[in-house]
Amino acid sequence: MSSPRILEIRRGVLEKNDQLAQGLRERFQAAGVFVANLVSSPGAGKTAFLERTLTLLRAEGLRPAALVGDLATDNDAQRLARSGAPVRQIVTGGNCHLEADMIGDHIDSWGIDLADTDFLFIENVGNLVCPASYDLGEALRCVLLSVTEGEDKPLKYPIIFHSADAAIITKIDLAAAVEFDREAVLANIQSVSPGLRVFETSAKSGEGMAAWIAYLKARHQKLAGDVG
Amino acid sequence: MHELSIAENLIEIASNAAQAAGVQHVQAVHLRLGALSGVVADALQFSYEVAAAGTLLEGSQLVIQAVPAAIYCAVCAQVVELPTIQAFCCPVCGTFSADVRQGRELEIISLEVEDEQPTYS
After folding, report:
1. What is the predicted ipTM?
2. CATH code at A163?
3. CB–CB of B89 and A194 under 8 A?
4. Residue A6 lies inside a defined structural domain of this protein
């Protein structure tokens, strides 16, 4: 004989990842490391943008580092290492996104001293869907969108834009050539995430990078102030 | 496509809860799935069957309750459901709002289970 009944659970399916991410966030905060998670579709220019960011921060005497996730190859890590910053590749072996446990494992096996690090950039796997669900312990989630991708991308991928703390428009040096409709893309970003901060940049010409670097420095100083 | 990874987490949590409660058989798992969770219901249903194979939950049903996104509209002074996640604006007055009150759910609510009754001789 058996009798059916309801067993209440009420638990988040991603609670394990969320708990690990929260642990990482506390660890980063205690060490004074400002962490940014960069998300975009493949080919939006994450690596070029990040290489320029690392170079500019180092030129100001700051200490950035980067973890870069890809399905395969360490090509991106090799490119980023040209900046002189410590870089580590995470090869996901087909996994379409990074999870908090991968970040924790790589921080530990990397042997990087977080106390000697000001910024950690996590370049996520190129994908505008799956990374939206996974907290990596970051202080800032940035979604990148290049001018070559089409103005309606925020409407096609509203969840990742909505979950981001900032949007970065890349390759603006190509805007005229591809007849980029700036007003349309800004309106679409605001529609899916009202009030979202937007940076318009070119890693090639350097345009717009100063505002981004100034923003990062202000956020890092605020973090240091909160810790101290 | 990260629904398989989500389904594996779901099965692990449900199996552990069922085992802890001494449950012999799970008939159904009830899940709340928000419009902003980033998880596609159909893909999750498919992945659930794959992930449940060989576990205590094999053959059980995944019952998904879809939760629409909702924002607080300061002008209307009320929480309003969004008909679409392409526009975070009040469907009544058109005011934009980033104050999301609902829609991020990805939560197991309950299990429908069967317990073996103790047999008396």
Report:
1. 0.89
2. 3.40.50.300
3. yes
4. no
Fold of B3-68+103-114: hypothetical protein PF0899 fold (3.30.2320)
For residue A71, what are its two tokens? 């399905």
- How many other CB atoms are there within 10 angstroms of residue A51's CB atom? 20
Domain around A122 = 15-221
**Residue-level pLDDT at A227:** 62
B74 near A CB under 8 A: no
- 8 A C-beta contact, residue A133 and residue B106: yes
Instruction: Tell me how close the Cα of A227 comes to any Cα of chain B, in angstroms.
Output: 28
**Distance separating the N- and C-terminal Cα atoms of chain B:** 53
**Closest to A45 (Cα-Cα) out of A120, A156, A146, A132:** A146
Query: Would you tell me the crossing angle of helices A100-110 and A15-31 to the nearest 10 degrees?
Result: 40
Q: How confident is the model at residue A223 (pLDDT cuts 50, 70, 90)?
A: confident
- Evaluate whether residue A5 is within a structural domain: no
Domain count, chain A: 1
User: Which residue is listed with tokens 């995470």?
Assistant: A90
Residue B11 in contact with partner chain A when CB distance is under 8 A: no
B80 part of contact set with chain A, CB < 8 Å:
no
Residues of chain B with pLDDT under 70: 1, 116-121
A226 located within any domain: no
Please state, in angstroms and rounded to a whole number, the distance separating the CA atoms of residues A189 and A211.
19
> Is A166 contained in some domain?
yes
